[in-house]
Amino acid sequence: MKTIGVLGSTGSIGKNTLEVVRNHPEQFKIIYLTANRQVELLIEQAKIFLPEAVCIADKSKYEQLCEGLANTNIECLTGEDEILNLIRDRHIDVLLNAIVGAAGMQSTILAAQQGTDIALSNKESLVMAGELINRICSETDAKIFPVDSEHSAIWQCLAGESSEDVERIILTGSGGPFLRRDLSTFGIITPQEALRHPNWSMGNKITIDSATMFNKGLELIEAYHLFHLDESKIDILIHPESIVHSMIQLRDGSVKAQLGVPDMKVPIQYALSYPRHISSDWPRLDLAKIGTLHFEEPDKDRFPSLRLAREVLKMGGTYPAVYNMANEKAVERFLLGKISFPEIGNEVESALKTHKSLDPFSLDDLLSITKLS
Ligand code: NDP
Q1: CATH architecture type of domain 2-146
Q2: For residue 244, is pLDDT > 80?
Q3: Does the N terminus or the C terminus of the chain have fewer Cβ atoms within 10 A?
């Protein structure tokens, strides 16, 4: 039995994680759950999974949480510091970090410092603090198990291979809802249109990131830190059907791919059950029914996010953290109707131009970047 803490249990990945756990009660036991504001859903989840503790980050929801769980033995906590205290004080086998954005970074760092293995969905942690996290993991022996479907695919393809045999990795991406849209109409894209992803049902922030392809830029940086390959050896390939989740190419030219239906429960379950693949009853891939798969190069004019991701990786220092943070802020403004869709990329580019990078940098430096408006 593996004991698990779930951060962000009320989000898209969090809910999928709880479905995986519900399907395997003999394999997994939830020790704690955390959320930001969705207190009613957190109470409902707590009543089903009976964790030792739950924490709601938003303090104004604490009373409601306590009332909702008054007749249970579940400890109720509140505030972001208490999320960190859970990670520090409760022993678990795996922490599943599904908080969205930079708000999840400290949790990943602290879990790594504790030597706790991390099933990592919060890619922003690695984008902002990849070197720091890798250094801590090598000291404490904490492992990172990728949840992102592309990185899970690469991780599975790499099994049994020597790192010197790997020539390149190929991250696939659907291209999002605007792959074929006339570029001259990007200025009038509405948040509602951008929130309609063709293949995946996800939280709002990553759905917008998929439309701008900042998600693929973040994944490029994530892959760099997870698999220790130079940026020039990480390719991005558009694959609208999202069936081939990613590939690796070996030095004899052989290519290994991992395929499956687009369902996040699959990589979540593998991150929790690693090193075993355990049973599931969700739909199987039917290639004969799908018939044809398509691949194409990404259009760099359409998606400046990809060019900027490669630039910040080359520049290093705190540039990748600013790339992430400026994007998070711009996505918030776009969703509020304050800026247009193309302005998301423009805002990130101008934040990078004015940023004075620090190298080396500390956690405090990163935390001050998260506070930039
Ligand atoms: P959601 O927006 O659906 O969920 C985010 C979760 O984080 C919610 O539980 C939310 O709580 C919680 N949360 C938000 N802000 C804070 C905070 N300040 N402190 C504590 N908790 C907070 O996001 P997703 O599930 O879509 O994505 C989560 C992460 O996984 C992201 O990093 C994303 O890039 C990554 N990912 C997601 C995929 C997907 O299919 N969704 C695929 C691959 C990666 P509340 O609900 O109460 O607001």
Answers
A1: 3-Layer(aba) Sandwich (3.40)
A2: yes
A3: C
Q: How far is the CA of 41 from the centre of ligand 1 (A)?
A: 14
Atom of ligand 1 minimally distant from the CA of 15: 25
> Per-residue pLDDT tens for 322-332?
999 999 999 99
Residue nearest to atom 4 of ligand 1 (CA): 11
Read off φ and ψ for residue 142, nearest 5 degrees: -70, 145
Distance 305 CA to ligand 1 centre (A): 21
Q: Which atom of ligand 1 is nearest to the CA of 39?
A: 47
Q: Which atom of ligand 1 is nearest to the CA of 99?
A: 7
For 153-180, what is the mean pLDDT?
97
Share of the chain above pLDDT 70, in %: 100
Pairing of strands 94-97, 117-120: parallel
Quote the mean pLDDT of the chain: 97
Domain ranges of the chain: 2-146, 150-262+284-369
What radius of gyration do the chain's Cα atoms show?
Answer: 20
Assessment of whether the complete model's pTM goes beyond 0.90: yes
AA identity, residue 147:
V
Dist CA 162 CA 59 (whole Å): 48
Q: What is the 3-state secondary structure (H, E, C) of 310-353?
A: HHHHHHCCCHHHHHHHHHHHHHHHHHCCCCCHHHHHHHHHHHHH
